Amino acid sequence: MAADYMDWLRREGRIVIVGASLAGLRAAETLRAEGFAGELTLIGDEPYEPYDRPPLSKSVLLGMASPHRTELPHRLDIDAKWRLGVPATGLDLTAKRVKLADGDEVQYDRLLIATGVRARPWPKEDEARLTGVCVLRTRDDAADLYQRLKAGPRRVFVIGAGFAGSEIASACREMGIPVTVAERAGAPLVGALGGVIGAVAADLQTEHGVDLRTHVTVTSLEGDSVGRVRAVHLSDESVVEADVVVVSLGSQRNTEWLTGSGLGAGPRGIACDAGCRAFDFRGIVTDDVFVAGDVARSPHALFGYQFLSLEHWGNAVAQAETAAHNMICRGADRRPHLWMPAFWSSMFGVNIKSVGVPPMGDQLMITQGSPAERRFVGVYGYQGRVIAAVSFDNTRWLEFYARQIERGAPFPVEYPTVDRRPENRQPVAADFPDPSLPTHGPTVTLSGYSPADQQLVFHPARH
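Above: the chain sequence. Below: its structure as tokens.
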């Protein structure tokens, strides 16, 4: 019976993908490439076909690429129905229907959820509406911010020194625009890479002319008589005049539309098994709903089977391809999603890349180069094994460390390495902040062991 159903599904079933972005497109292509001949529908809340997001905070802000020329290439004709500019508003698991904002409903036999994340807005709505207060996540956000930077503002103020905030500050300085960055932690990037590497990032920013304010929070945004932002008030009672404010406080996962659906969905994402099948709110795996991309939280054998949420281009592609494959094959042919977490960024002339899960590490060793020279590799350890690595302008070593993570290599690192300095023989504390605080914005987030967890605040067992 199961074999008959799968044959029928592949031949004339209905598959709906909610989320017309990178993961949605690559899943659709995989379905067609692996022989799915039925009806395929992609639903997206934006009016655009899938586009590439990494250039939005880099080349687009610098005017080197148009935000309207960032469409993702189609690897093959997916012969799909596109429902663009109409967000999904609800899911009926029993009737197998997706509800849309225009009142329509779309029937499915199998569903893939790839709704991703959105920028976390400034929490005070009246201040968020001031002209000049921006976020950066979508193509329209990038087009708006680019025009404001091009107009030559007196000063840009960036709230939050995660990767996105730091990249925006870097673009401002490259354009010769004065910029202030406020971060409540002690340095930029501390949620993603810890305090030791954060100190390197802080030096990088100040050396390039960024007015970096740490251990402070923004208490309010002040507008003028016509509703334009004019100043930023900080918790140390200082005031900074600025006519563009970019709110860069991390992201929120797009799961609200699933409220009441019965899925295990919440602020930390949608729980799924290693085969990308969604869990319901009781922790029981579903048969016909799959998850991929930034909105998914899935267990990983290399990291203690904790659920991981990964905001990364490569993970979105790999997980979408795995989910699509598993949607249309028999159980014995399914495969797990075991992508090695990885991330990259570019700021202030330095390429930063990482593999593994740095926030899981409690110790750090510099194994190549020197942080003072902005060219090094740092290796993170947890419970006596290598768990992650980060490089500044030294990417060639990361593949080696990815293999070390896979085989559970011991930590501290004992083997000799090229360009290893005598002062780096001993590990130091990686100095990560309390991970239960949600706004530090790591791109790899640990979220415990429960598929039914729908809480925003997460307290890992080791803290």
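The chain has eight helices and 30 strands.
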